[in-house]
Amino acid sequence: INDSEGHPSSSHQTLKGTSKWATSLENLLEDPEGVKRFREFLKKEFSEENVLFWLACEEFKKTQGKKQMQEKAKEIYMTFLSSKASSQVNVEGQSRLSETILETPHPLMFQKLQDQIFNLMKYDSYSRFLKSDIFLNHKKGEEQEENSPEAQTAAKRASRIYNT
């Protein structure tokens, strides 16, 4: 992509990997590799259930059909919200949730709780993740890949192709 003078433009290049993850938690959660690394970090912090709950809620919103919704809602409730949950998340208003809400599920029924968990991750875990060895080592690996002779050769080939 060239700018108005015909020079290669860098402003149109999209960020990838760790650079994109570092711009926002939303970008991190949109990248499967980012989610994998963030989960790895949260597991070490004993709070992996937060991202798992968030992901389960995202998946739940896409669920079609009342029966499937009921099953998925119950699964989310039993895994993350019930007092006997195996991976209980810590959210306000949790004590008021009862299994009766599971009988009439709707795509946004967990939205408020999901937002709480998102904010908890955004203002707590995410900033620590960006300073963690997991993130920094992945970033270093990406930078070494970009600076490898193979990557530079490919970039030169690409620039020859696009600048002819």
Automatic annotation (TrEMBL):
UniProt keywords (A-Z) are: GTPase activation
What GO molecular function terms would the record report?
G-protein alpha-subunit binding; GTPase activator activity
Q: May I have one GO cellular component term?
A: plasma membrane
Region annotated Disordered, chain positions: 140-164
Annotated RGS domain ranges read: 24-135
Domain of life from the UniProt record: Eukaryota
| Protein name per UniProt | RGS10 protein
Gene it is expressed from: Rgs10
